[in-house]
């Protein structure tokens, strides 16, 4: 479970992993991998764009969480985060597409080999709570990708979708309760 910052922590964890595994080959410097819209990518070679957040009904928790002897906390909200990874090569036109394919191929390889993020890969509240999140490629259709790229005047670029979750965001609602402190058993014969 995590605080409201957990969404940012997931993005930072993904960037950290990709920076550690993709530099200096095929991306020369870690700072060239980051969180950004493909339209606002700046000088990034690989951008990760959080384009959708959906509640994860399959992982929804319904049980209250005990907080001491006189309080219970409502269960966390469970969400899946949908990312778009896009390569942006600065190579000459003749080799740009091949360079972007190499970048995306390595990103896919890294995320496949690290399909469960845990331990030192995680940052922030995810690391503090010892959480684990899965990283799964999202099979986006060509039509869906084309619709997503209609947000700007940029030409379509090859991109890959990933779903990361379950991510749990703690509830701030706490209810005071009275615990059972004594029992009365009577046996009648």
From TrEMBL:
Organism: Paenibacillus agricola
Pvc16 N-terminal domain ranges (all copies): 10-181
Origin: domain of life: Bacteria
Lineage: Bacteria, Bacillati, Bacillota, Bacilli, Bacillales
Name of this chain's protein: DUF4255 domain-containing protein
